[in-house]
From TrEMBL:
Domain HECT residues, every copy: 437-776
Full protein name: Probable E3 ubiquitin-protein ligase HECTD2
Catalytic activity: S-ubiquitinyl-[E2 ubiquitin-conjugating enzyme]-L-cysteine + [acceptor protein]-L-lysine = [E2 ubiquitin-conjugating enzyme]-L-cysteine + N(6)-ubiquitinyl-[acceptor protein]-L-lysine
Role this protein plays: E3 ubiquitin-protein ligase which accepts ubiquitin from an E2 ubiquitin-conjugating enzyme in the form of a thioester and then directly transfers the ubiquitin to targeted substrates.
Region Disordered: start-end pairs: 1-51
């Protein structure tokens, strides 16, 4: 199994050992063998029928009718007769065959030869005469005759057991299909059967659920076969599990899938990635809904007490992790990573989840932080900010204690990271201040410009960030190279004696995250991937940092033309050695001098050929994005992590770090309109109505220019437009004047224009011709 194909273990802090959780709180009581099942009482039949088409009655009413339908199954050999005393006993079913699952985890290599069992062949499948065409014809006949018997018999037979499921849906009943690339399942037939199921009468839907229960209650006598995995794969797609009345059955299905061995998960992951986008998304949404309704049930009486089903959410989360892994193996992904977010988690105690994760890791107690892909970026920002605040308070408190212990008068300034800088020496002063006050980086930031009166209520801090970024990223400064094709900056590979200014940029980014400031920085996504490599500073200083695996896709985000050229080299059908005449060398210009670097020892003497061109391209990209800028990026990495050193970073994807630093590119101008404050205007004033008519009618590029003009960035904070605190103030000047912006306060000063045409003309001129960050 390749490393890339492994299903990742849930995220765990480095200081704790990882082990798969099986419950949400505390240790789960010892599981017992399934009790004998006795007949249902009349009271169990008082279930609530959902009534609407495509839904089923509650599980309790279904259970009470199972025995009454024996005649439909008398001529079949059912493994278990499904009769329940009452609904609570059904919901409290213990896990299935724990002892078997534990045994199958024992490596056969450790057993003596006389105890080793031979590999079991795939079981012989029952004959299944129905084809997809037969089934569809039966469905069509129902429309004219109203007789559901043939359809009922098909569902009764197909869902009675795992072998029957395979007999019905396997493309070739005689083939084993033991490969990860092909599940061997007729996906179109499965989809057709499930699409028709929700439109069948209630008794057919109940028959399907009865068969699923019988299958899940089956005693396992050995490791799972590939046919068993196929059955799980098919059952997981059942749309009946959208209904809360089926959640008890769904939970047991999820548990059995979650507790499969890693090799079985490996097969399922690769089968999941072959699903259509629609079916894949349905699986994810169904699992997210299951977790949400277990956390916040609309009708708590529908579910057993949380103490008796503490394994529901961990099981669902584990299956979601398999789907998330499958999604990451597909390029492009089947669905955006944001589709795995569960917004319900924004309303739970996130810090308790975080502290549980830090304290226990994956060993004893479940935490959603073990599965960070389900936590939204907004929720992660809350965790990071509160973790930062706690660190700030702790450091400030220690400073106060030290002052008092030395019998010195406490000064309120000691609670802040106070920056005093001159505008004329902005970079050097900032670097000196941050170097001297390295121990204070996790305190709240306050900035003072020397020779200027005024308190920093947030505006001066933002101005300091804007001016510093503007100066450092200027091409003449030489630290970063701007690539016009990709509209982004990348680290200059020029060698120098001191890389402290790169460390300053890293500190700036860290302070921005720490102090909830959105920066107008244009780094490619690859930069943030490197920034999390690793997410925690290694204790061994000899371990390299900021090194990650890179591909032509990463290079394309920075230098698209070069990436295209390398891709052409890989696909070239002629003789590479004779036609390109290249060696394993790279040439770079540094201060007007062309320098050569070998991509491997003796690279200047190794020609690039059809056989080794893949190696050449990979070494070339690795040199450009990793090796040639290692010292620059390492300084940048250490600067960022000197401020943001926190286990909370392990929860983030590279894309999420970018959003925290730079904001989200998705604009919602209607949300901005709803949250805008006014000074001198009312939202019903004619000028304001003209303004929003014009802005809402702007194309996206002009809307971004407006946002950049007024806030210094064309991106939106993680919390949305409301977090901008956008304000429109009345500018009592001539209507011949253009609008003015105070980017430090996200404020637009708007003259009282008399017509929509005049306002639109002046606004477009203003936002299209502002220099730099639009600072006044």
């Amino acid at each position: 199994m390749s490393e890339a194909d492994r299903v990742p273990s849930p995220a765990a802090p480095p200081e704790v050992a990882a082990a798969a959780p099986d419950e949400r709180k505390g240790k789960e009581p010892e599981r017992e063998k399934l009790p004998p099942i006795v007949s249902a009482g009349a009271g169990a039949a008082a279930g609530l029928d959902r009534g609407s088409k495509g839904q089923i009655s509650t599980f309790s009413s279904f259970i009470s009718t199972v025995n009454q339908k024996k005649e439909a199954a008398e001529n079949r050999s059912s493994p278990t007769h499904l009769v329940f005393p009452n609904i609570k006993n059904v919901r409290d079913l213990p896990p299935i065959c724990l002892d078997v699952r534990q045994k199958q985890r024992i490596s056969t290599d450790t057993l003596p030869s006389e105890m080793k069992a031979p590999v079991l062949p795939e079981p012989v499948l029952p004959n299944q005469p129905k084809t997809m065409k037969d089934f569809q014809e039966d469905i069509e006949k129902v429309k004219s005759s109203g007789d559901w018997k043939a359809v009922h018999d098909f569902y009764l037979t197909t869902f009675d057991s795992f072998p029957e499921l395979n007999a019905a849906f396997k493309k070739d009943a005689t083939a084993s299909f033991n490969t990860i690339e092909d599940s061997g399942i007729n996906a179109k037939f499965v989809n057709a059967v499930y699409d028709a199921l929700l439109n069948t009468p209630q008794d057919i839907q109940k028959t399907v659920l009865k068969g699923i229960i019988n299958s899940l209650l089956r005693e396992w006598k050995g490791p799972r076969t590939k046919d068993d995995l196929r059955a799980y794969f098919i059952l997981l797609q059942n749309p009946q599990f959208n209904n809360t009345s089926t959640y008890v059955i769904y939970a047991h299905l999820l548990r059995q899938i979650a507790t499969l061995v890693e090799a079985d998960h490996h097969f399922l992951v690769h089968w999941f990635k072959k699903l259509s986008q629609k079916r894949f998304k349905q699986l994810v949404e169904r699992l997210l809904q299951f977790i949400s309704l277990r956390l916040f049930p609309a009708k708590p009486e529908e579910f057993p007490p949380i103490t008796k089903c503490s394994w529901w959410i961990p099981s669902a989360s584990k299956v979601l992790a398999l789907l998330n892994t499958a999604n990451s193996l597909v390029h492009p992904p089947l669905i955006p990573y944001t589709d795995f977010y569960n917004s319900t988690l924004d309303h739970i105690d996130l810090m308790e989840e975080y502290h549980t994760w830090q304290s226990f890791g994956n060993s004893h107690r479940f935490s959603f932080c073990q599965y960070p892909f389900v936590i939204s970026i907004a929720a992660k920002k809350i965790i990071i900010q509160r973790d930062s605040e706690q660190q700030m308070i702790s450091i400030a408190r220690q400073s106060l204690v030290d002052k008092v212990s030395r019998r010195q008068r406490p000064d309120m300034n000691m609670l802040f990271l106070n920056m005093k800088v001159r505008r004329t020496h902005l970079v050097s002063d900032s670097l000196d201040e941050l170097t001297r006050k390295r121990a204070d980086l996790k305190k709240k930031l306050k900035v003072t410009f020397v020779g200027e009166a005024g308190l920093d209520m947030g505006g001066l801090t933002k101005e300091w960030f804007l001016l510093l970024i503007r100066q450092i990223f200027h091409p003449d400064y030489g630290m970063f190279t701007y690539h016009k094709d990709s509209h982004c900056h990348w680290f200059s590979s020029f060698k120098c004696d001191n890389y402290s200014e790169f460390r300053l940029v890293g500190i700036l980014m860290g302070l921005a995250v720490y102090n909830s400031i959105t920066l107008d920085i244009r780094f490619p996504p690859c930069c943030y991937k490197k920034l999390l490599s690793p997410p925690i500073i290694p204790s061994d200083q000899n371990i390299p940092v900021g090194i990650c695996s890179v591909t032509t896709d990463d290079l394309c985000q920075i230098m698209p033309e070069l990436a295209h050229g390398l891709s052409e080299l890989l696909s070239y059908e002629g003789n590479v050695e004779e036609d390109f005449y290249s060696t394993f060398q790279v040439f770079q210009e540094e201060f007007g001098i062309i320098k050569s670097y070998n991509l491997k020892p003796g690279g200047d003497k190794i020609p690039v050929t059809n056989q080794n061109r893949k190696e050449y391209v990979q070494l070339y990209i690795d040199f450009l994005l990793n090796k040639s800028i290692y010292k620059q990026f390492a300084a940048f990495y250490y600067g960022f992590h000197s401020v943001c050193a926190s286990n909370a970073l392990m929860l983030l994807r590279p894309e999420e770090v970018e959003i925290l630093v730079c904001g989200s590119p998705e604009l919602d101008m209607h949300a901005l309109q709803r949250s805008t404050q006014y000074d001198g205007y009312a939202k019903t004033d004619l000028t304001i109505r003209y303004f929003w008519d014009v802005v809402l009618g702007f194309p996206l590029d002009l809307q971004k220019k407006l946002l950049h003009f007024t806030t210094g960035s064309d991106r939106v904070p993680v919390g949305g437009m409301a977090d901008l605190n956008f304000k429109i103030s009345k500018n009592e000047t001539s209507t011949n004047w253009l609008p003015v912006a105070h980017t430090c306060f996200n404020q637009l000063c708007l003259p009282p224009y008399k017509s929509k045409k005049d306002l639109k003309q002046k606004l477009i001129i203003g936002i299209s011709n502002s220099e730099g960050f639009g600072l006044e």
